[in-house]
Amino acid sequence: MTGSLAELTVLIVDDNKFIVGLLRRYLEKLGIAAPLEAHDGASALDHVDSAVVDVVLCDLGMPGMDGIEFLRHLADREAPPDVILLSGQDRSILNTAVRLGRAHGLCVLGSVSKPFTLAPFKALLEQAGNGATGISRGSFQPLTPEAIRAGLAADAVELVFQPKVSLRNRQMIGVETFLRWRDVDGQLKSPAAVVPVAEQWGLINGLTEVVVRKAMTQSGIWRDEGHRFNMAINVSMHDLDRYDFPEFVVDAAESAGADLAAVILEITESQIMADIVKPLEVLSRLRLKGVGLAIDDYGTGASSMQQLKRVPFTELKIDREFVAGAPEDGAARAMLMSSIALGKDLGLTVVAEGVETESEWRLVASRGVDVVQGYFVARPMAAGEMEGWLGRWNSTAC
To answer: Distance between CA 14 and CA 71 in Å, rounded?
Structure first.
């Protein structure tokens, strides 16, 4: 048993004493001793307010404050714990509760249907706290514009990379770049604490330039070492509002010795605005220069079909909303299948994001997805960790 699991403080929230006892035994087998207990949402909140809780195992159907109402109140806490939802109700209700919790801004690790087995709890608890990325729960507190300006001047931007793996041969074919912000106190901040503020205060172009140049530098290093990884970089709609953005990308790649043809810029589908004249020109010119374009979080916006028709995308990334739990969730599975079919019909590389279990891997593999990324493959990691991870992955992929 890993030390990280043994160090977790877990709160069980369920009104059924038999279930509480069963969960206690499971946690003990995982090395987690003396979990806290509560029998309704109100008493669970009292525990969260009075003690450090890392993970809450919460039933949905309870007397008084039920699990769904509990999620709303939990989200009001300054640094809420991670959540695993439990229920014997219809699977669709459980899946909706997971989405609702995430919409509240909670880190909902996933859900487990009754009757329980040990394996799902182990897999979900191993994700608790995002320990692999070093991000604390308080990392989502928005920075001030002044802090972002100071951080850009002080080189606060760090990058981590999540592998993308071909389903055809299980070989790593690229990475997605994620921003991390090293605050003045040494703590890492999530992009959610930085990017919205930077967009609001006109700082996003400067932030993107730093991210792109750092990513290109790493791409050039890997290229010199003999690796031919694609480098996916997220950009904001605000970056596409400047006509010189294609020239900046080309210059950044050339200066770093990176292969421009291995660069993929990811644009979140929900960000693409109705007034697309300038972004469309910028995106088209990027494609002319050989840069790949991915529509990210596909299916979460209101105009998905329209954007696919307008923009010369090369890659369609299916949002994890339609991947997570799809083997059990008929509605999610239907939307997943539809997205895969559309991507294939359009000749796009289809990427499934957020694949976290073997059953999800097998499902997307059986339906013709080209590339997978998610915790089942690897968490985002620092560049220095990639070589070791790649060796371990290749040894299991052979």
So the answer is: 14
Residue 10 tokens read as 């877990």
* Phi, psi for residue 394 in degrees, rounded to 5: -65, -35
CB 53 within 8 A of CB 106: no
Which distant-in-sequence residues (6+ apart) come within 8 Å of 133 by Cβ? 160, 178, 180, 188, 379, 380, 381
Does the structure show a pLDDT above 70 at 132? Answer: no
Looking at domain 132-397, which of 3.20.20.450, 3.40.350.10, 3.40.50.300, 3.10.129.10 is its CATH number? 3.20.20.450
Measured CA to CA, the distance from residue 44 to residue 109 in angstroms comes to: 18
Q: Is the pLDDT of residue 397 over 70?
A: no
Show me where the domains of the chain are located.
Answer: 3-126, 132-397
Asked: is 3-126 a CATH 3.40.50.2300 domain? The reply is yes
Using 50, 70 and 90 to split pLDDT, how confident is the model at 139? low
d(CA 61, CA 310) in angstroms, rounded, equals 45
89 has pLDDT over 90:
no
Residue 378 has pLDDT above 50, yes or no: yes
pTM for the model stands at 0.79
Q: What is the dihedral of CA 359, 351, 270, 324, to 10 degrees?
A: 10
Rounded-to-integer distance, Cα 261 and Cα 107, Å = 35
CA angle (135, 139, 143) in 5-degree steps: 140
Q: What gap in Å lies between CA 279 and CA 59, rounded to an integer?
A: 46
Do the beta carbons of residue 123 and residue 356 sit within 8 Å? yes
Letter string b/e over residues 160-175, b meaning 16 or more CB atoms within 10 A of that residue's CB: bbbbbbebeebebbbb
Residue 91 has pLDDT above 80, yes or no: no
Residue type for position 358 = E
In whole angstroms, what separates CA 37 from the centre of its chain?
30
Tell me if 98 sits within 8 A of 42, measured CB to CB: no
Tokens of 203: 């700082």
